[in-house]
Amino acid sequence: MSRRLRTAILISGRGSNMDALIEAARAPDFPAEIALVVSNRPEAAGLAKAKAAGIAVAAVDHKIYAGREEFERSLQIVLETHRIEFLCLAGFMRLLTPWFIGQWRGQMLNIHPALLPSFRGLHTHERALADGVKIHGCTVHFVVPEMDEGPIVAQSAVAVLDSDTPDSLAARVLEQEHLLYPRALRLVASGVVRVEGNRVVGASASPAPALAVPSSG
Question: Which residue, among 5, 10, 112, 125, has the nearest Cα to 57 in the 3D structure?
């Protein structure tokens, strides 16, 4: 097969989506290689998991830098040292500056726990329940300077149940995140999709799971 895209995953915590990407990339035909995991928190549990999986890890502690761009310039050096070509944000809890995003325009994905453009930002599950939506889900999108506004690669939906709490809804959405992110990375890394304006065109991700009729169950 052709050379695989050298990809880094950026995390801040346990890295459950990181696990899903690492597992998917074990397949010989997967078009991306997870070559590095980086965290802005040296104590992040995901670093130990990635190291145990045989993947290079690095910590760039944001707390020791005077500002965001100083932190990002050190992060950029780490990525260049490891010859990284593509980034996946997976629970990376830092807002990135336009400078850093500009270095990786069209080469950086994020996963967001909502069906964008609805519920940008934080506390998505609480807000979805408060607004009474019947369908919720997750989105993989390219990163642009505007928060949660980049071209959408793929989405997956779940039904919202009458009995849902933020935690129960979050758990079902997270299950879909673990399926969706590897599919989206495969689409992008294999080159079967491309960005035109603010749209991603080409082959689509696997269809979202069939939705159950919301009920009190």
Answer: 10
* Distance between CA atoms of residues 82 and 91, nearest Å: 21
Q: Which residue has the tokens 């310039």?
A: 73
Structure tokens at 112: 């967001």
CA–chain centroid gap for 151, Å, is 13
Instruction: Check whether the bond before 117 is cis (ω within 30° of 0).
Output: yes
**30 close to 186: Cβ distance less than 8 angstroms:** yes
Euclidean distance between CA atoms 172 and 137, whole angstroms: 9
| pTM of structure | 0.93
Q: How far apart are CA 215 and CA 154, in angstroms?
A: 26
* Catalytic member of 62, 82, 112, 141: 112
Per the annotation, the verdict on 112 as an active-site residue is yes
Q: Dump pLDDT digits (tens) for 4-44.
A: 999 999 999 999 999 999 999 999 999 999 999 999 999 99
b (16+ CB within 10 A) / e for 56-84: ebbebebeebeeeeebbebbbebbeeeeb
Distance in angstroms (rounded) separating the CA atoms of residues 185 and 57: 20
